[in-house]
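Bench notes, afternoon.
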Amino acid sequence: MSVTIDSDAVLWSAPESERASRPLLVLLHGVGSHEGDLFSMASYLPLEPVIASLRAPLPYGPGHGWFPMPEQAPDAARWQSAAASTQAILDWLDGTQSTTVGLLGFSQGAAMSLELLRSRPERFAFAVALSGFAIAEERDGDQRLAEVKPPVFWGRGTADPIFTEDRLEFTKSWLPEHSTLTQKVYPGMGHGVSQEELGDIVAFLRDQY
């Protein structure tokens, strides 16, 4: 399957005339949401990067998604769809002026941020993966990613229902092997972003810039 990123739907923190020579931070929303969701965090984030918030290519409920949910398709089809969305983001990035690129994703968007690292390990400076997981499939770039080990912030709550035991255990073992990991676990937090976590995200990003 082939999908594309809608360039007209991208939300930017700066006009085109102010983007050259600045690092790019790409925001990837969760399933059923939209490009305006994570963009609301922009005012809290460091000023160095230009921020671009993308809209996922697949319609889902009132919003969009990066790949189907479990009730919509078997895993093989879901991960094939994730690969198509990954390629769509890469194609979109190739059309930008970006040099240094960081990623920040929530839920499905967090899974996509890790898929992007796995697809081109040296293309991305870091990833922030919030309330998301690593897809339990082998990827061509995994070996190289384990050598590069880019910085990754992985934040999750102990009351987050998306973390089944197998998904959690795979991600917990996979991330330290393939990244320079900053892991934060927030007691009692569900599927969301708390003020405490936002502070930790900002601190991580400041270290990157």
